[in-house]
Amino acid sequence: MARGRRVNSSGERSKQLLLEKAIELFSAHGYHQTKISDIVKAANLTQPTFYLYFHSKESLFNDLNSEFQKSFYDIFNGGLAQLEGNENVRKKMFAMLKDILSYFVQNPNLTKIGFFESAEAEEMKRELADRLVEIMTVHNIQGSMLEHVDTRIFVESLLGSLERLTLTKLLTEKRTPEMLAEDIINIYFAEQEELVR
Amino acid sequence: MARGRRVNSSGERSKQLLLEKAIELFSAHGYHQTKISDIVKAANLTQPTFYLYFHSKESLFNDLNSEFQKSFYDIFNGGLAQLEGNENVRKKMFAMLKDILSYFVQNPNLTKIGFFESAEAEEMKRELADRLVEIMTVHNIQGSMLEHVDTRIFVESLLGSLERLTLTKLLTEKRTPEMLAEDIINIYFAEQEELVR
Amino acid sequence: MARGRRVNSSGERSKQLLLEKAIELFSAHGYHQTKISDIVKAANLTQPTFYLYFHSKESLFNDLNSEFQKSFYDIFNGGLAQLEGNENVRKKMFAMLKDILSYFVQNPNLTKIGFFESAEAEEMKRELADRLVEIMTVHNIQGSMLEHVDTRIFVESLLGSLERLTLTKLLTEKRTPEMLAEDIINIYFAEQEELVR
Amino acid sequence: MARGRRVNSSGERSKQLLLEKAIELFSAHGYHQTKISDIVKAANLTQPTFYLYFHSKESLFNDLNSEFQKSFYDIFNGGLAQLEGNENVRKKMFAMLKDILSYFVQNPNLTKIGFFESAEAEEMKRELADRLVEIMTVHNIQGSMLEHVDTRIFVESLLGSLERLTLTKLLTEKRTPEMLAEDIINIYFAEQEELVR
DNA sequence: TATGAATGAGGTTTCATTCAT
DNA sequence: TATGAATGAAACCTCATTCAT
């Protein structure tokens, strides 16, 4: 390939392309198995071009992770805000789950990176769990039938379900966010006369 | 500097040591971030010694994974065999979970590798889920309260809970296998007059 | 984004700017640590513009070096011409040194490049020394007190003093050309009844 | 070249070889123009071998520089200690210079690196000059004929002479340490009845 | 059995330079 | 005249693996 600018080339487009390919490859094969050479090959560009738009492989990965986390926190915090107050917990939980899962389907590869691949994902989930436990404790939420289960356990279990169902049912498009949110609600907040006591 | 066989050295001992350190490091930092040099350093041996006992880094990892899978399948299949027949499902499930979790606590690092790190883990879990779904369907198991939840979803959710609780509660020794098995049973098989119909 | 010729731009101005910045940066950080990207950034221009005016990084550096050498040779040769004849050597030497040092202070960065940085500087100094030795020998100049010192050594020593004093006292503006010329004369041509014999 | 250990190879020897070649090349072409590939090629080894013995190109260079500086400081401080007290300054100066120059001839390439190439060289020389000025001031040393020259200037001039004569006469083996030390003494400490006042 | 010594292969990153506009 | 966009070439460095002892 000759040196210099290509016909019809655009920086914005190239950067976008690299970003897309990076997300695809990172999510498909993980950080270590994705080489810069893979990314630029997929984008039909060369390695120096990568460094025109990104500082380093690591920083690109971190940026992607941050992007995910930011969006996720926004949605999660929005949902949590609704949860305060103890009526209609079931409905509110459903709404929050649906929002989260909707974001996931709309950004499947970013989700794989930020929710499953990155080192920071685990910390984020721990925080998540902490917040949920707190809210549930303060507002005295938890299905009556689960009265024998510690709230912390309840929450971690739910998180695990969310993780696995996302991976196997949502991102494989076997189920929609709505369906999955309903499933989870059915499992963790079985319908009852009164959810709180 | 001295070379050759060390006094008091035994091949088996060296191999065992390398195995242990490899398990520790792979489980702690993952495959790619664990270098052969790290393993042998931890074992106080040298790199060529590694190749005396293992064909390659990859094959060692695969061996460890296989070891885990074999044990796991044994336990799982044992449990499944009990499950056939539809009385006392709750108890049998509890027993199976307890067995699995017991194996996990006894082999925490191998579990991290074989259940969480390896590429084959996912496939194994898929199989697991398949078998569980099959059994549950054939024997018509599933709590009445979950009648609105598809069996496949139910099973994947349970698997997710198992994963996450193992990681956050069992391997951190915050909960025993018994406790955790009970928790899961309480969540997924809430006590009822009759579990099956 | 806008491309093409800027309003108010003039080729000469851009070239001059690049030249200035290049001199600054080459003199401050040396050839290898000065990147084209640094130069154009400092000049608020872009890399291709650099190649509009200069053939390459190396050729620019060489040009700068040549510019210095040319000026230097002019001054030096002028001074040498005066030196022919053996009266008033002290005064003539002083004048020559002052002229050289004046040029140095007026072109501090170019001096750093052409007198200290460039590979050719050494060759130039060798020539310089040769010429000085020749003149001094032919005209039988050299302080009586230094009768035990070989002329070549005398000259190289003086050159070394010139180098170091330029670097540490002149270019740091701790001393004027006049002062420094006098200092050197005082060291190398201590006042005597008769300078020559 | 086949992989693995070569016949008759020795780590000590390889390291030494690399060190030698590195010193040669760094001193001949400077830091930036000396590639690791050059060094290992000269040593008939491969690049990874370099990293078996040195942490990085930069650290190797720094090590070499430090080695020079340490030796130099030792010699210099030894010389300075002798200088305290004001009799026989001429002799003591001669001795010190001879020691320094002797070290230089014995380590010509290291000298080029540590005294002429490294960034730290300048700082070292500044310190050197400071110490000399201090000693000369305190002990009231300085040739009578140089009474019109500021001590600082005197010292910097001497240092410049030392630099240049080292480069052009000593390292080219045109003059021995003894001869050069004498030359410098003759220039800067012209014989007199009394050196101090 | 074990190690000292070495390397093939390949990774990330940098930089001077060039093309298309 | 000037720039946005791109790349060839090559630098430093790492790691799994292997040979000679």
From TrEMBL, chains A, B, C, D:
Cited InterPro entries: Homeodomain-like_sf, HTH-type_Tx_Regulator, HTH_TetR
Family matches, as Pfam families: TetR_N
Keyword terms: DNA-binding, Repressor
HTH tetR-type domain mapped to chain residues: 12-72
Domain of life: Bacteria
GO terms of molecular function: DNA binding
DNA-binding annotation, residue ranges on this chain: 35-54
Protein name from the UniProt record: HTH tetR-type domain-containing protein
